[in-house]
């Protein structure tokens, strides 16, 4: 049985109490986590924003890493990053939880106890679901559900081990709880957007069932429970399977294009903006991202002049679809094929970008470009490379999109090239930091896109 840690819910920026025990362990453990953004720098500054005893033996923490600071009066986060942790504390770690082990506390109020990531603990996961099934509060934490939600109890939990920037718990193959790791003030798009689309009757997106949030040190979404599609396969897996077997994927790509357009149309209705695309400002932001990436990845430098021409063409382009809410990080891993339909998931956007930007309006061409890059990624997973496979999928996807949206991304060449270039630059920076062996994949696109008309 876990040893009870008696703490009243509270919020503090100090390292007193349990944090005196946890801080040394977390400084060593955080950089090794897939979802931690600061892998290129040591965790020297660590402060506690809030701490709540969620239930005996499980602590909920919001931690700030980076320069010491406290939330601004207006609700803004201090410089650096905020992370959500569920920490388990036991006298002895139970079997089969070695991967969850963080360390054994040496000092402070938890001295001598085993500390671990509680999301790996089935008992903790079960109790977390119970909190969501029975809306209420625990200190600054608030658990809420949709009015018609009827989530049964006793669903066996399992933690998904796929690489991702958050952590997901599946309950009984009926629901999936996404626990956000990197927290920013405000409502997370992965709660806001699916809820709005469900209200529009859009069946392409699983609707939120329950969620939890915090009110300290600012209002923020912490996790969302949605229906789980147990027999679904993600687009990435299906694409690789088609490549391996030599099966045609163009029909699936065309249907995916139609599904993307349907989601865009529903988003435009759910979040009406009427804002024309600001191509000049968008091009300037893309150029700034390119310059920043080139300073971090020397391999980009020779291609910078050519890539700038793509953004220059966008700046001088005065046509294109209106800016609107979009997915923001669309690729084959963000879509599921279940039954005879495509579903779109994970509306959080790129977690590394500010929440205000991810909740803002952008060109729908950005989502299209993300999916086109994903086809290229899939094609390069096999040797020899299959460029014709990627080309056919790209064409089919755009054709399906055009048939439903009423406009053809292929006829918006300057827009599409600029957004695809911006996506490839992001991929280069990501791969250089996280998966250096994959760097040649986006660099091949960079070499193509740096040529005018590429």
The CATH top-level class label of the largest domain: Alpha Beta
Helix content: 25-40%
Count of helix runs: 12
Shape-level CATH architecture of the largest domain: Alpha-Beta Complex
The main sheet comes to: 7 strands, antiparallel
Structural class, from secondary structure content? alpha+beta
Compute the number of strand runs. 16
- What sort of overall outline do the alpha carbons produce when their principal axes are compared? globular
Number of domains: 3
What amount of the residues lies in strands? Answer: 15-25%
- At the fold tier of CATH, the topology name of the largest domain is Aminoglycoside 3'-phosphotransferase, Chain: A, domain 2
Task: Output the CATH homologous superfamily of the largest domain.
Answer: Aminoglycoside phosphotransferase (APH), C-terminal lobe
* Order of neighbouring strands in the sheet with most strands: 6-7-12-13-10-9-8
Give the rounded overall mean pLDDT: 90
Global Rg: 23 Å
List keywords for this structure.
454 residues; Aminoglycoside 3'-phosphotransferase, Chain: A, domain 2; six-stranded antiparallel sheet; seven-stranded antiparallel sheet; 12 helices; disordered N terminus
Could you explain the architecture of this structure?
- By secondary structure, this protein is of the alpha+beta class.
- It folds into 3 domains: 18-118, no CATH class; 128-227, no CATH class; 233-449, Aminoglycoside phosphotransferase (APH), C-terminal lobe (Aminoglycoside 3'-phosphotransferase, Chain: A, domain 2).
- It is built from 12 helices and 16 strands.
- The strands form 3 sheets. A 7-stranded antiparallel beta sheet has the order 6-7-12-13-10-9-8, with helices on one face. Strands 1, 2, 3, 4, 5 and 11 form a 6-stranded antiparallel beta sheet that branches. Strands 14-15-16 form a 3-stranded antiparallel beta sheet.
- The termini are far apart.
- Residues 1-15 have low confidence and may be disordered.
